[in-house]
Amino acid sequence: MTESTKYLLSEDRLPKAWYNLNADLPVPAPPPLHPGTGQPIGPADLAPIFPMAVIAQEVTAERWVDIPEPVREVYRLWRPSPLVRARRLEKALGTPAKIYFKYEGVSPAGSHKPNTSVPQAFYNKQEGVKRIATETGAGQWGSSMAFAGSLFGLEVEVFMVKVSYDQKPYRRALMETYGAKCIASPSNLTHAGRSILEKDPNSNGSLGIAISEAVEVAASRDDTKYALGSVLNHVCLHQTIIGEEAMMQMEMADDHPDVVIACTGGGSNFAGLAFPYIRENLKGGKTRVIGVEPASCPTLTKGLYAYDFGDTGKLTPLVKMHTLGATFMPPGSHAGGLRYHGMAPMVSHVKELGLMEARSYHQTECFAAAVQFARAEGIVPAPESSHAVKGAIDEALRCKAEGKAETILFNLSGHGHFDMQAYTDFFAGKLKDNTYAEADLKAALAELPKVG
Ligand SMILES: Cc1ncc(COP(=O)(O)O)c(C=O)c1O
């Protein structure tokens, strides 16, 4: 068994429940606040944009939340996803470390995102919703929501960050193949989009702006709700299926990780793999847990832990998180899904409690790591996932330098088949390590809402 490369669970071992870390944390995460009153929000505040089942999951104190059977049925199209021992990468690095990766690129949309788009579509359908408005960065989430919408008979409208809309036309085509409508953001369809375009007609867009557009559409139409692909508690909850499966698979491998690594955009694939291990750590486990983010948008490593809006248009409730400021415009990069000013409140809270580490890398060193990985293991990582690959390779090289045979587990959150232009640019030496201006960061942080 220990000589195996892939550790595969049979469908009957597909987890029956998602795991809620909130139930086990020594201190509860600070609640979201109403921006007008400064008081904790209640379900009624969220009802215009989310179905009640999702709102209930957002605030649940239950440790385990049952996965509905129709959702498990769809999950079985690609889950349980494989756990792979990266033996060829180990050899290429000459490291005594053992490297495993959980591969989420096997989903129909190519990433971990359908783990939450499917239940979100299911709950919306159950409550009679007809349309979903959402945003997407690089297109992974938009295509995942489009896929889930097609299975449950929902119309899906996706506001796609302009820079990615231009860079990744085939992601757009994939959304359209699933029957969704894809619009470049900022657009002139919404008040939020128009006000950005008035100030900057050439705006590249950002996730913060696209969220404002989608929330505005959902709030202004009775038949439409909003779906978010990351950040919120219910999204982190749905993603824990990754870690729950990985734990069973590591047991099959007769091994246990010393280090767990995932990239962090809004924090959901990290939460998905890491939260079950943090549960273990709270009971005496010793696994190091590392989130990896882009140096051009370093939310966990350079942001403030403060109440802020989740979107640029300031339409969302205030959530306590690591933030670069809701009006911060991260420089363009190919890891569009990591270009977000904030972080999941749960992940931020875990960081504040000292239960995780964070580090940042520039995009060219991540692409170099992704190419090394592809040449050893065959899979071309998504630019977002390449940050986790770089983190894992650095840990493996540390083990080599220290002569330690540690076990490293990382999440390969998606494949990069729609990102080949980025690879082409990398090979042509055209990729830049964009940095933000400190003055822009300062200005965005100066606009943080005052919370009493
Ligand atoms: C492949 C992939 N990995 C990671 C992310 C980052 O999101 P999160 O931090 O919520 O997992 C994205 C977001 O679009 C993505 O597409």
TrEMBL record:
Q: What class of enzyme is it?
A: lyase
Keywords attached to this Swiss-Prot or TrEMBL record, sorted alphabetically, are: Amino-acid biosynthesis, Aromatic amino acid biosynthesis, Lyase, Pyridoxal phosphate, Tryptophan biosynthesis
- Cofactor(s) the protein requires to work: pyridoxal 5'-phosphate
Start and end residues of each Tryptophan synthase beta chain-like PALP domain: 77-414
Asked if the record carries the keyword Signal, the reply is no
Q: Quaternary arrangement and interactors, per the entry?
A: Tetramer of two alpha and two beta chains.
Instruction: Provide a Gene Ontology MF annotation, just one.
Output: L-serine hydro-lyase (adding indole, L-tryptophan-forming) activity
In the Enzyme Commission scheme, what number(s) does this protein have?
4.2.1.20
Family matches, as NCBIfam families? PRK12391.1, trpB_rel
Q: In which pathway does it act?
A: Amino-acid biosynthesis; L-tryptophan biosynthesis; L-tryptophan from chorismate: step 5/5
- Provide the function of this protein: The beta subunit is responsible for the synthesis of L-tryptophan from indole and L-serine.
Q: Which family does it belong to?
A: Belongs to the TrpB family.
Gene transcribed to yield this protein: trpB
Query: What is the protein name for this chain?
Result: Tryptophan synthase beta chain
**Which terms in the GO cellular component ontology are assigned?**
cytoplasm
